[in-house]
Every structure is written in structure tokens, then in C-alpha cells.
Amino acid sequence: MKTKQNRNSFNRFRVLSAAILLLTSSMAHAQLKYLQNVNDIPPHPRILLLAGEEQQIKSNIAADPTWAKIHQSIIEECNHIISLPVSERIVEGRRLLGVSREVLRRVFYLSYSYRMTGHEKYAGRAEKEMLAVSAFSDWNPSHFLDVAEMTMALAIGYDWLYDQLSPASREIIKTAILRNGVDPSLNRSIARFLTASHNWNQVCNAGMTFGALAVFEDMPELSKMIIDRAVETIQLPMKTYAPDGAYPEGYNYWDYGTSFNVMLISAIEKIWQTDFALSQAPFQQNGCLYNKHDRRDGS
User: Fold this and answer.
1) Where in the sequence is the domain holding 179, given as residue range(s)?
2) Which residues, including other chains, have CB under 8 Å from residue 24's CB and lie 6 or more apart?
């Protein structure tokens, strides 16, 4: 019965995705502002760390004790993660954010450890984690930070471990990225982060961009629309750094929002050798351009 329900749910998702593509494919290209000339994308892995770039990290580890200590700490933590049960959909209050952050931490660490060591135990444990959260009913879209961080987690794991995942696992994880991550962001009543000038914009746009980059070859028009939208709307919170680099939400949210902002810029620059001028935007010349009545509490 459960298998039949899952199959029916997946079929409904495919119908919905087809409808979205019919609506977007004819108009997305004309509406693109930044990615109108983008067609090609590197093969997996392509998010942040391209194939073969592990060697530079290994050289840094061999040459620098600090790098070596960080690397060893990650490996040791992954050996601990392997012994833990997979994550469960436990909502605290209105948030699934604690689970999303733990999944992001686990999948990032495990995927890194596999790429650095080649040990199958790390890839296998990351696959189990991603399949577990792919089976969640949703990633709590009413609090979209939860969706964003979970989408980023699965995007990194799907991309970095693409060749190690079974075809069945790839399909399940890709479907979850689209169904639970990207698709809810097309609902304007849910995706209020698009008009925000605070950390929600940076975190959610980064998560959606990573998801779009992960599945780009399967959904190119939708992916380009999501990334183009992110490049355009992330400029809203970036303007609040003017004129001197301070952040209106204080240093804790400066760290949170800025980290995801930088990851978004780094990811698209790594792939296309351009960040579409985001890092060169002259916001410092414009003063502190934000609506003082905007909600910026990050909750």
C-alpha cells in the first residue's frame, strides 16, 4: 500500500512538473536577465569543488598543520556520524531547521570525506541520509529556511557523489530536490524571501540555486529561471551592507546571511567563470538602501 501511495505521489509530481515546464519553457528564456546566454554546464561534480580539485586540498593538508587538523577533525566526525541513526522529521515549534542543519552538516562532511579518501563507507552513509530525508512528506515550507538548508544539503550530496549513487537513488534524491525544494519556491505566497532584505533572502536563494545547479541538465529552463531569479533578488540584502560593510541584523546574522551569500556567488562563479557582477556591485555608493520597516529578525 505504501509503495502504491509513493508511486501515485511521484506520478502527481511528474504531472505537476510537466505543467510547470509547459508554462515556463516558452517564456523563461525571454525573461532571463542574466543567464539568457547560458546553455552548457560542467558534469558532476560541479558545485564549489570541481572534479580533480581535491588534489589542491590534499596539497594544502600536507603543507599546513591547520589544514591537516581541520581535515582530520572532519574525518573523525564522519566516523562518528556513521554510527548514528539517519535523521527523522522532527519539527520543533514551527521549525524543522535543526534537522535541516544537521543533514547539511552530515552530508557535506560525508561527501567531502569520500572525495578526499575514496572510502565507500562515507558515500554509502551519505546516501542513506539523503534517501531518508527524501522520504519526508515535506521540508516544512511554511518556514522556508528549513527548505533552503535541506535543499542545499541534498544538492551537494547529489552532485559530489553523483557517480557513486545508484540510478534509483539519484532519481529519488533529484525528485526530492525538485518536489520539496525548488517547486515550493515557485509559490509566491511561500517564497516571501524573494522580496526580503535580510538573511532569509540570502539563505533561501542560495539553497534554491544549489538545488537548481544540481539538477540543471534534467531541468535546464527551470534551473536557469531559479538561478536568474536568485542573482536578481539577492541584491536586495546585499545593498544593506552599504556604506561600510556593516549588517543591520547584527554580527550573528551577518555571519549567517553572508556565508550563504558567498556560497551562492562562489558556486555560480565556479561553473560559469562569472558571478554576473554581484561581487562588483557598487552598493557602497548608494547609501544604506533598505526599507527600515522591513522585517529582519531572521526568525
Assistant:
1) 23-285
2) 221, 222, 225
CA neighbor of 115 nearest in space, from 164, 172, 65:
164
Q: What pLDDT does residue 129 have?
A: 98
User: Mean pLDDT throughout 59-73?
Assistant: 98
* Cβ-contact 298, 256 below 8 angstroms: yes
CA distance 215 to 209: 10
Looking at the DSSP bridge assignments, the partners of residue 95 are: 92
Assess if residue 104 is contained within a domain: yes
Separation CA 263–CA 193 (nearest Å): 17
Closest listed residue to residue 205, CA positions, set 122, 265, 252? 265
Does residue 278 belong to any structural domain of this protein? yes
92 - beta bridge partners? 95
- Side chain identity, residue 45: P
Looking at the domain assignment, is residue 101 inside a domain?
Answer: yes
The pTM assigned to this predicted structure is 0.86
Smallest CA-to-CA distance from 236 within 276, 196, 263 is with 196
- pLDDT tens track for 216-240: 999 999 999 999 999 999 999 999 9
Number of domains comprising the chain: 1
Does residue 214 lie in a domain region? yes
Residue 91: exposure state from Cβ atoms within 10 A (0-12, 13-18, ≥19): middle
Alpha helices in 135-250 (DSSP H): 144-160, 167-176, 199-214, 220-233, 235-238
Contact indicator for 91, 140 with CB cutoff of 8 Å: yes
